[in-house]
Amino acid sequence: MHKPIEWLIAHLPLDFRVLYRQFLLRVIDLETLSIQADIPRFLGQFAGVLMMLSMIHTIGFYVSLASTRSPQDFLAVSWYFEHHFIATMMLVVGLFTVIAWDSTFPDRRDAMILAPLPIASRTLLFAKVASSCSIWLLAVVTLNFASGFVLPLVLGYAPSGLLGFLRHLTAYWFTMIAASGFVYGLVLTIQGLTALLLPRRLFLRLSAILQLATFGLFLGVYFLQPSLSSPPVLAETRNQWIFASSPSFWFFALFNQLNGTLPPALSWLAYRAWIGLGFVSAGSLASLLLCYMHTMQKTIEQPDLVPGARGLHWTPRLGNSLTTAIVFFTLRSLLRSRQHRVAYAFYLAIVCAIALSVARGALAAPGPGAITRGFLMSTFMMILFAVVGLSRVFALPISLTANWVLRVAQLRPTEKYFSATRQSLLLIAAVPWWIVAAALSLSFRPVHQVAAHLAILAVIGSVLADLSLIGFSKVPFTCSYLPGKSNIQYVFWCFAMAVIPIVALAADYELHALNHPRDLVVLGIILGLAAWGLWAFNRHRARSAVLYYEELPEEVITTLGLIAPRSFVGHGDGYTEIKHES
Description:
By secondary structure, the chain is mainly alpha-helical. The chain has helices spanning 4-10, 14-27, 39-66, 71-99, 108-113, 121-143, 147-197, 200-224, 231-235, 240-245, 247-259, 267-301, 321-336, 338-364, 373-393, 403-408, 414-440, 447-468, 488-514, 517-544; strands at 369-370, 444-445, 566-571, 574-579.
């Protein structure tokens, strides 16, 4: 007898099952998978990272509760972590929904290939929604697999026994699903209404801006909103507008309303959660239905290409014409290509999170303070992720059919192209985030130490750019790409166990050098020599390098194993081979 889930899957319509699998492949970018990987393996890696985060948060929750000495401290810590779990869940689902921005609504490929087939629009709709919801529910379960049982056990079972545990358990999982569903539905509603009201060409132009704006909004709200330090903070009049406008506090109140611990004076926050959930559910459902009924024909009839704006166009020169062309080609590829924009947004999310954390600390400080180890580590990480992330995105092609233009137009030495690529990496990744680091450093003193750190940070940006381009003999976004070079868990653990300790040691050494001028001079000389050496090495290599536009796999000789086995018999004069007949 089949298991219930297997029985349900087997009895689903065949066209739904085929479409669900194909849409699931498009929700997950296959370029990030190893070459032998399949979807379950990738989902296992994705789930493993979230489960580890859940374990870390749960251990912190349990240790913090164990250190409390009074009922008031116990309540304050429990409320803080309840809100933290909800806010983190909403952030993860929000970022996933933004990354999978175009995976739920029909695009031109769906309209051109699936519309002529005898497939009902509702089947197409259900398959797309099911594929997106599969990853969404997987994120909810794995990010809460530890906290979802430890928190109800500690807060519910201890005071009220089994019934209290079951009530807290039900309230916790309902709140998490409702909060993540609110974020998911809110993004769908905004995107669906925009697609319905605007012409397709204008929607495509505005879609990229909305995607990036939503991405920044989720990160900004998560890192800049105040933490719930104690229950009386919720009752203060000056904080009411913050809690009234923050959905994470709405669902925090909803959780406490469901488990019976919410003070009556805060019931209005829980009512906001119910009202918001109802509006978002209705809006997302209406957007999906209207888009699949009315947008498919508009997708086919209206072109995807957006005409250029009329008027005077001025492009600043960044050195010679080749450098200017490659820098602006790189910038426009990032802005116009969803694949590259989303890939780089993964790295920018980490950079923005670090920058917002530093900004939050600076805003909370009463005045300028001394440079700290945390600030040095944060700025190092910002430049690291920005430069390395863009160099990884460079390897993904944007339009291989247009490579012939670059091939026939290669009239200059390879070193000129390499120099232009390096310029793109510095101007697009290193310089903007160096400026952000300079703005964040305004809250630190003394000024001469801040200036020294910014100079060191600029040299580190140059070193990272040259390190990223070792062996990179390509023009950005023009070479074919072989999947199978990324392993999420491997990269995650390498970063956690190697990169973070190295950055911490470097921050400690620089903090010491900032207070000792002689050590600071030595550090500057070492970094300057490293930057010059890497630049000279890449320049020398580029003189003999050849630009390539096709990335070929390594040649592997595969045998069929049809040769008959051989055995040998030893005797006094040596060994005699015994031949076996096949």
